[in-house]
Amino acid sequence: MRAAESDWYKRIWSLDIKAQSWVEDTARQVDFICRTLQLKGHERILDLACGFGRHALAFARRGFFVTGVDITPAYVADAAEQAKREGLDARFILSDIRDVTFAGEFDVVLNMADGAIGYLENDAENLRIFDVASRALKPGGRHFMDIMNAGYADTHFPCQLWDAGENGLTLSRFEWDKQSRIMLYGQCDVAYGARLPRVAIEEGNPTRLYGEAEIDAILRARHMEVTDVFADFSGKPASDNEIQMLIASRKGQ
């Protein structure tokens, strides 16, 4: 695959994403986060790169006060309209994550479905997301991220994977540069009942992946400590044989 332009993350998103198979798992993911972080229901939550608000809205329906931030106008407008229709205590802000200036205001910060971690133009810019998360948290606040595991990429990429949901299939293609730690990711979505197209994924979105040890060092440098690491939302232990990595951490007092 050829690499997409470095600003790909600003322009590829649309509300068609609502029909993708992994969206169907949102409620179970929120259940897992509530258990893992031992949330009581009154916490203030900041959802970075919130997309169309699927996690933010799910938390708000449970009584949490939620702020979502995303760079895509259609996502922010859709999430805000949904919150208004349901009378939810949630607000949505159109912004690049790097421009967020919250300081010590939130009990929980989320980066879900990558949460834009690794999407930015270089390592220095990607690290700014961790700065924003740490700064936004109150002392003792919790951070939860759902990212792809660089350890898996080292041993399993390149590869192609199918994911089957209730509405259709997603074919994902992964390529990997071990030196730069950059993954190229492309996908093709096929709705059930549609004629299967000739699949040719020619362009991939460049994403910087991290392993567990690297994330631990990044968080420690920001006065945060990893408390739990999982491979999926059932609580399976993380390993380099698992493509997903969920990391919970706590900010120091």
Outline of the structure:
25% of the residues lie in helices and 33% in strands. It is of the alpha/beta class and 253 residues long. It has a 7-stranded mixed beta sheet, sandwiched between helices.
Describe what you observe in this structure:
The protein is of the alpha/beta class. It is built from 6 helices and 12 strands. The protein has helices at about 25-35, 55-60, 75-85, 125-135, 150-155, 210-220; strands spanning about 1-5, 45-50, 65-70, 90-95, 105-110, 135-150, 160-165, 170-175, 180-190, 205-210, 225-230, 245-250. The strands form 2 sheets. The chain has a 7-stranded mixed β-sheet, sandwiched between helices. It has a 5-stranded mixed β-sheet with strand order 1-10-9-8-7. Strand 3, helix 3 and strand 4 (about 90-95) form a beta-alpha-beta unit. Helix 1 (about 25-35) crosses helix 2 (about 55-60). The protein is globular, with a radius of gyration of 18 Å.
